[in-house]
């Protein structure tokens, strides 16, 4: 069933996820989701000269939650903070070669978690980023809604 | 790679004796039992034999067994047929929150057509309290349906006591025995049930064949309309090979019942004991006292069920989960919810069901693999015993 449900890229990231863990002396840490919903992602980042030099994640969740966490951390390492703020779940899903439609809304937490980590970094350093305007790290349920149907 | 199937409550492999019994009824003895020539009479005899074999497994008479296409059809027939037959008497049905969807969705359908349904709560072990049933009865109640053994947590309900309450109030009693059949000793006369749903593929028979026991003298409305098959109660040309397979599987289940229960419960207990010894933060859901002999339903804290299931699948192990993430509806198991299990724990639940082909070595392999899988996913997880939920 595993093979039917997820493509090879997703399975590879799920079986051997990259960047698992927590960074010591992280410059920013963000969390999104909740165990009640079935998925929760924590991401920690290192930032040097406005560039993300390292990222690690910890995720409670299903196969696609773990795979998307893995690929998202891969994607933001080397990005500028502004670039990382523009990363969307859609790009993450594309990088994975697609996910089952039913999984798209509930299990891809990375863009919000990344924004939360950068928000934490901005708070600590007093920096402002355009991509964080109007962002509330505690606004959990707006985007994380199981009921919104989405075609992809 | 070793393949270990621990999902016997989902379905079972067809036993060789069963398949051998079925095979002649495809290309050699293919006569329609309703026809009058010789080849058809052999089909008719096979039908009677199979009906007798199923009846003997549950202490019924041959004429009280009506074959259906599956357990779901039997459930639908029992509830719809009763609702229609007794519509002038009342419109109230009592069932439980932990029924199979075949029953729950049939009841939801009837609710849209003017019927009232009470869904009884269960205790933390999954058992219905007989006093709750008694107090739910009204003068409009026409049917009580309580499943015999639950498919997820394996809880065996006090059917005899519940059926007794129904009888006292002169209300029909149905039980969905799809999981209980062949796993629990069943005597319909002693239990006092009026109707009982069964399925072949849970007892090493083929898929696509089930049956409804209807007590002699009880007449509910038909559900499938057409020809005069099944004593004019269930239309449609008989799935003869399937029926023969069900009959053979029922005979084997009857002969092997004690050994099957001993074998299953020993391996199931060994699995639970080994998991609890080797993996921490594990909960056993349901009750060990009244439980399907093959069922182990376990919660592994801080990780999610679909992820575990996929990792196990990559190691050749087949199990199922109550996690929302594995269901198309994205809703967590209604059964585990009814037992009062917190939803974050429901997400981390796996159901293991052992059966006749399971060996001790299979269990050892599963426990070893599970230990690695749980440890790996807990390393990835953002929640832990230290951090808490």
Describe the protein in words.
The complex is a heterodimer of chains A (152) and B (389). Chain A is 41% helix and 18% strand. Chain A has 152 residues and is of the alpha+beta class. Chain A has a single domain, classed as Sufe protein. Chain: A. A three-stranded antiparallel β-sheet of chain A has the order 1-2-3. The longest helix of chain A is centred in the last third of the chain and has 16 residues, at 110-125. Chain A starts with a helix and ends in a 27-residue tail after the last helix. With 389 residues, chain B is an alpha/beta fold. Chain B folds into two domains: 4-11 and 257-375, Aspartate Aminotransferase, domain 1 (Alpha-Beta Complex), CATH 3.90.1150.10; 16-253, Type I PLP-dependent aspartate aminotransferase-like (Major domain) (Aspartate Aminotransferase, domain 2), CATH 3.40.640. Chain B has helices spanning 16-22, 24-27, 38-58, 71-85, 101-111, 130-136, 159-168, 188-191, 229-232, 240-278, 305-314, 334-338, 343-346, 360-380, and strands spanning 4-5, 65-68, 92-96, 116-120, 141-145, 172-176, 195-199, 210-214, 282-284, 295-300, 317-318, 320-321, 349-353. In chain B, β5, α7 and β6 (172-176) form a beta-alpha-beta unit. The A-B interface holds A 1-2, 5-6, 14-15, 17, 20, 31, 34-36, 38-42, 57-63, 65-66, 102-103, 106-107, 146 and B 302-307, 310-311, 313-314, 323-326, 328, 330, 332, 343-344, 347, 379-383, 389.
Structural class of the secondary structure composition of chain A?
Answer: alpha+beta
Radius of gyration of chain B: 22 Å
How many structural domains are formed by the residues of chain A?
Answer: 1
Order of helices and strands of chain A: HHEEEHHHHH
CATH T-level fold name of the largest domain in chain B: Aspartate Aminotransferase, domain 2
Cα-to-Cα separation, first versus last residue of chain A? 22 Å
Q: What is the CATH topology descriptor of chain A?
A: Sufe protein. Chain: A
CATH class of chain A: Alpha Beta
**Main sheet of chain B?**
7 strands, mixed
Shape, per Cα inertia axes of chain B = globular
Supply Rg of chain A.
15 Å
Described by strand count, sense and barrel closure, the largest sheet of chain A is: 3 strands, antiparallel
Beta-strand share of residues of chain A: 15-25%
The class by helix and strand makeup of chain B works out as: alpha/beta
- Stretches of chain A where pLDDT is under 50 for at least 5 consecutive residues are 142-152
Q: In total, how many beta strands of chain A?
A: 3
CATH architecture of the largest domain in chain B: 3-Layer(aba) Sandwich
Anisotropy-based shape of chain A: globular
CATH class of the largest domain in chain B: Alpha Beta
Order of helices and strands of chain B: EHHHEHEHEHEHEHEEHHEEHEEHHEH
């Amino acid at each position: 069933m595993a093979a039917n449900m997820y493509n090879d890229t997703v399975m590879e990231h799920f079986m051997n996820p990259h960047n698992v863990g927590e960074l010591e002396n992280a410059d920013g840490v963000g969390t999104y989701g909740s165990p009640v919903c079935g998925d929760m992602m924590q991401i920690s980042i290192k930032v040097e000269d406005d560039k993300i030099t390292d990222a690690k994640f910890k995720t409670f969740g299903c196969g696609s939650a773990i795979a998307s966490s893995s690929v998202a951390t891969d994607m933001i390492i080397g990005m500028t903070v502004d670039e990382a703020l523009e990363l969307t779940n859609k790009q993450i899903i594309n990088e994975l070669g697609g996910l089952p439609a039913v999984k798209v809304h509930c299990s891809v937490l990375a863009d919000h978690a990344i924004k939360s980590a950068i928000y934490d970094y901005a708070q600590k350093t007093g920096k402002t980023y355009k991509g964080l305007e109007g962002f509330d790290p505690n606004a959990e349920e707006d985007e994380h809604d199981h009921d919104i149907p989405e075609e992809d | 790679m070793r393949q270990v199937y621990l999902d016997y409550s989902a379905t079972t492999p067809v036993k060789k004796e069963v398949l051998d019994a079925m095979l002649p009824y495809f290309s050699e003895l293919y006569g329609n039992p309703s026809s009058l020539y010789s080849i058809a009479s052999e089909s008719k005899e096979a039908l009677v034999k199979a009906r007798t074999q199923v009846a003997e497994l549950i202490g019924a008479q041959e004429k009280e067994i009506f074959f259906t296409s599956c357990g779901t059809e039997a459930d639908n027939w029992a509830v719809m047929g009763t609702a229609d037959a007794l519509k002038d008497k009342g419109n109230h049905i009592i069932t439980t929150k932990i029924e199979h969807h075949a029953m729950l969705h049939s009841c939801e359908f009837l609710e849209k057509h003017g019927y009232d349904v009470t869904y009884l709560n269960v205790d933390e072990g999954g058992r219905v309290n007989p006093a709750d049933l008694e107090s739910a009865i009204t003068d409009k109640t026409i049917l009580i349906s309580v499943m015999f053994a639950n498919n997820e947590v394996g809880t065996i309900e006090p059917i005899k006591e519940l059926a007794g309450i129904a009888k006292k109030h002169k209300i029909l009693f149905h039980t969905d025995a799809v999981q209980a059949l062949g796993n629990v000793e069943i005597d319909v006369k002693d239990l006092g049930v009026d109707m009982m749903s069964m399925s072949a593929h849970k007892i090493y028979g083929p898929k696509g064949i089930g049956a409804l026991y209807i007590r002699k003298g009880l007449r509910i409305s038909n559900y499938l309309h057409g020809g005069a098959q099944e004593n004019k109660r269930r239309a449609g040309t008989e799935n003869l090979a399937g029926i023969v397979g069900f009959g053979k599987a029922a005979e084997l289940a009857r002969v092997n019942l004690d050994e099957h229960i001993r074998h299953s419960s020993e391996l199931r207990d060994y699995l639970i004991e080994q998991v609890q010894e080797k993996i921490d933060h594990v909960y056993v859901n349901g009750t060990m006292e009244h439980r399907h002999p093959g069922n182990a339903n376990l919660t592994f804290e801080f990780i999610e069920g679909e992820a575990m299931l996929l990792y196990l699948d990559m190691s050749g192990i087949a199990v199922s989960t109550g996690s929302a993430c594995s269901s198309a509806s994205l809703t967590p198991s209604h059964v585990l919810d009814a037992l009062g299990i917190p939803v974050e724990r429901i997400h981390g639940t796996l159901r293991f069901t052992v059966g006749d082909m399971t060996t001790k070595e299979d269990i050892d392999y599963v426990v070893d693999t599970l230990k690695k899988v749980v440890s790996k996913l807990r390393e990835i997880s953002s929640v832990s015993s230290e951090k808490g939920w």
